[in-house]
Amino acid sequence: MDKDQYVREHYLQDALESLAKYGRYWNGAISRTMAGNLNSAIKKSGIDTLYSELPPQWEHVYYLSQDASLEDFENLRSIAVERFNHDLEQKDPKYLPV
Predict the structure, then answer these.
(1) Number of H helices, E strands in the chain
(2) What's the rounded Cα separation, in Å, for the pair 35 and 40?
């Protein structure tokens, strides 16, 4: 199975649903080598996105390119820290900030 097929089968649907609902999709499991493949698959689905890998957990976040301002990027960095603290406190993952 190639990378494109793998991301379509394992990540694409969740990414599309999250982008439609929240305007972003967080993924801490995807490898760096597949992150771009997922972004390409999202774009092929008709959604113009960018992605970044943010500390402190180095999660990938995919977000709508229309939201690509410095202010929005700083907001994503804050959310990444909140997600890290959420994990440290061992809170229920279904309540992770998006």
Answers:
(1) 4, 3
(2) 9
